[in-house]
Amino acid sequence: MDRAALFDVDGTLVDSNHLHVVAWWEAFRQHGHRVATHAVHRAIGLPGAQLIDHVLDRSRDRSDDGRLGTAHDTVYGTFHERLEAFDRAGDLLRTLAGDGWKIVLVTSAKDRELDALRRAIDADDALTATASADDVEEGKPAPDPLEHALSLVGVPADRAVFVGDSVWDMRAARRAHVVCAGLLCGGIPRADLTEAGAVAVYDDPADLLAHLHTSPFGTVRAGTATAGRSSDG
């Protein structure tokens, strides 16, 4: 039976979270909002509209929300050519693809941003599909992006593993009934990822690759998705 390896991209495969923090912080500043960078960081992984809601007072005047998103995209666009994948991110995708997994990127990125992320990973040969938040009504932490990703490759939830770096990733996977592994390279603490639903936590793609056979990928491959290994690194 087919198996699906679903991957978040920002902060999971590509070292981009803190660049997003800077871009959002600058967008908020340009439009008169003073926000702490740590508050922005905790919201990274949400689609733009939800991130703005998470960071700003929901009773605010929303007329500037579109311009906030545009300002973020403009600032972040200046980083595209400098994006770098985490160590062995491409090797992880190719190893799983070589073992018969269907690889799907599950991301809120679109158009030029997604192109830049894929160039950084440099593993298009391993990809089966890409699922964007634009393809669904609700982004993470709703289960919709993961359910859409599974529908693209025709794989049931119990034959899939999702890897992400944020609590939003973990919550989406839990709601989609997909076993999930967390990575610390996005900057979110291990305890937060575990509490949100991660069955195993690793430092980064290289650490996950080094422990692949004892990870959730190994348990799904063997027919059970209820156990995993948390790296002590």
TrEMBL record:
NCBIfam families: HAD-SF-IA-v1. Transmembrane segments: none annotated. Keywords: Hydrolase. It comes from Streptomyces vietnamensis. This is HAD family hydrolase. GO terms for cellular component: cytosol. GO terms for molecular function: phosphoglycolate phosphatase activity. GO terms for biological process: DNA repair.
